[in-house]
Amino acid sequence: MEHFDSLALRRLLERFPSAVQATHAAFGDATAQVERGSLLEIMRLLRDEPGLDFEMLSDVTAVDWLGQEPRFELVYHLYSVKQNHRVRIKSRVPELEPEIASLVPLWPSADWMEREVWDLYGIRFRGHPDLRRILLYEEFEGHPLRKDYPKEKRQPLVGPRN
Amino acid sequence: MAMRLPLPGGQPAPPLEDDFERDLHTEHQLLNMGPSHPATHGTVKFLIELDGESIVDLDIQVGYLHRGFEKECESGTWYQAIPYTDRLNYNSAILANLGYVLAVEKLLGIEPPERCQWLRTLGGELSRMGDHLTRCGAACLELAAMTPFLYGIEARELTWDLQEMLCGARVTSNYIRIGGVKHDLVPGFPAKCRDGIAKIRALLRDFDDVITGNRIFVDRLKGTGVISREDCLRWAVTGPILSSTSTSRWARWATTTTAIWCASRRCSRACASSSSVSRSSRSWARAP
Question: Using an 8 Å Cβ cutoff, are A64 and A74 in contact?
């Protein structure tokens, strides 16, 4: 696997040769796909290693690759203000056990973003202090950004009245 | 201390302080604020736990305005997603258009012609100015200062007049297209723009006179809502708030990752290249 001149990818390949499953740098954005069991250690290295200094977790989102296995892909965007560089980390989770370690212990900004991913994709975050729905109401059934959730489906909390 | 009469039977009365403290049961109060509250600019609900006048816990419920744009975009074309971006922030719709379109262009490997990039920069700057004018005015309104709000809104209206000339809409611009913009400037735009900017500058001077250095304004805001640089980074706070925690010019630039800056950087690169003339002579705009 190649590091594409990215310091972050080079360090990851040195330290976690087995956990990093693939790398690419399409359109100039360094990206690593990692094994989900090692996510927390990998993120801790990216945050704490001198020279990498990813102090900021900018974004957490997910992709539903319906029909593929593992079905879901978590996407994390990290940014270092100090070094002015970025890296994107991806990790796959299977449909039957959609769960991954929470990053709230490392970056508190993960809190609401992980709640959003849970709400809309139904992926659970192990170790999250308060994993509730954030945009939808508690009684909502299903996770609407999954590709098999029909766009036309409506489930209003209060039904239509005459 | 007030004179206390002896109790029946001649027992001495207990001290006054004990009367107040005995059986005084207090508990935290739960207060529902919103989801449609006049003090919030939009729908958001705060579940506030109060100890007297201090907030000890706060749960913010933000979903009331969730419109499901991502889900709608799933079934549309890339082109059809642009009007949704108008509605992400009604104060700076062109910038939201631009952010989305730059991402699509990056994926497709499209570089729009030079004139288009300048038009985007122009539209984006109008959008940005309008946004700041509204927000700064509204921030004063929260402090019960009506006058600067009206100055800000008057200036914002001038930027919206120019946006209307640019794309036919004051708020939901739908101006930027993948690979270009909707159409070229209408005749008379440059003169109107210079005139508008001069008026905005005058209004800004009034705004500055009445707010910056105003004793009430400074007293109410100084030391309020202070956030450290470390907390900004841990909570992924960017933009002017992160810049405010550093005096380093470099740090400010490093966090200025706005699309408009990218556009102008790409623009200057396009200007530097000799082929820019031939590129800009190609079709760069869709028919209105």
Answer: no
